[in-house]
What we know:
With 407 residues, this protein is α/β, with parallel strands linked by helices. The chain folds into two domains: 11-219 and 345-403, 3-Layer(aba) Sandwich (Rossmann fold), CATH 3.40.50; 247-332, formyl-coa transferase, domain 3 (2-Layer Sandwich), CATH 3.30.1540. Helix content is 37%, strand content 14%. The longest helix has 22 residues, at 174-195. The radius of gyration is 25 Å and the shape is elongated. The mean pLDDT is 96.
Amino acid sequence: MPAAGPLAGIRVxxxxxxxxxxxxxxxxxxxxxxxxxxxxxxxxxxRGWGPPWVGDATRGTRTAxxxxxxxxxxxxxxxxxxxxxxxxxLRTLLRDADVVVENFRVGGFERLGFSDAALxxxxxxxxxxxxxxxxxxxxxxxxxGYDFTIQAGGGLMSITGEPDGRPLKVGVAISDVVxxxxxxxxxxxxxxxxxxxxxAPRGAGQRIDVSLLESTLAVLVxxxxxxxxxxAGPARRGNAHPNIVPYETFVTADGTIAVGxxxxxxxxxxxxxxxxxxxxxxxxxxxNGDRVVNRGQLIPIIAERLASAASATWLERLDExxxxxxxxxxxxxxxxxxxxxxxxxxxxxxxxxxxRVDQVAPPFRLAATPAAVRxxxxxxxxxxxxxxxxxxxxxxxxxxxxxxxxx
Length: 407
């Protein structure tokens, strides 16, 4: 078993489903937290978001790869929160927890009996992460929030795609992912703050609100600032960068490569590597600002040159010149690349019922208290008895909950 992570001893009750919440809690679990995944009777919806699948449908273990991507290192408790007995079980769990994460529609958790005041009464030190689509105020607060529609309404699709093509979503549910990241960061900050607020009244827990919309707006970064400075929405540029030139993909004699000339020092090296050294001192292209203004004149020159030789030729020359470049790999190729293998970016794992469930390794490396993939994603309710026993329920009480369909 890997060494305990930095969050060992922290208990997280995860009442969220789908992606943003489960991604946040998986990050906390990777860092050592004990995450109890509280699932509705039918389970997290992503269990059915296949194909592809693992497990066996005839044995009731068929599970979508989507679910497997964000639920490792957790223990699953099947719990029906629509009845009083189920809510009583959750209250018992929350009394000894450090964090609760939920993504009910705004006001949904409160309607179940878990208002801010009720949570503070149960456990004054509890950190409550509430994830919503649009935040808790404003005309859209009550709307359901889905990654796809948030990418559309949050401006991200408007800058993704070819200039003369349709707006496109990012190839993963990036609004959900970054919301999970911001949620995890905020939880960590609240846990640290809890220890540093000894004078806080009635404990030092607090509510955290993170929304998909605000998270998407936040990760627009330079594009958002461009819009604020100019007063206009940025245009789609395909693979080209709005503020750096050349920084895009180019067709070669046998494929396509990505090239990013990210500094003035790299520019003359790039020109020499592609056999056009005089381009570096041409007045129209000397500085990045010049190149951005005159990209329409520069890019065709570079494109014509790079089309004259194979990708491998250019990648070798640019690597030797210290100019950032890369082939365009598919996801499987990226996971299998020599660098990914050297980093151990794929962790081999087997579930006793599901079989092989390899995982992408945590991306952060802590020297003394490392993050780790310790256990595979659980089946629905796999650790129900274990979790309830720890919470003080004896076998008879657990059997009664099971007979009543509560667990």
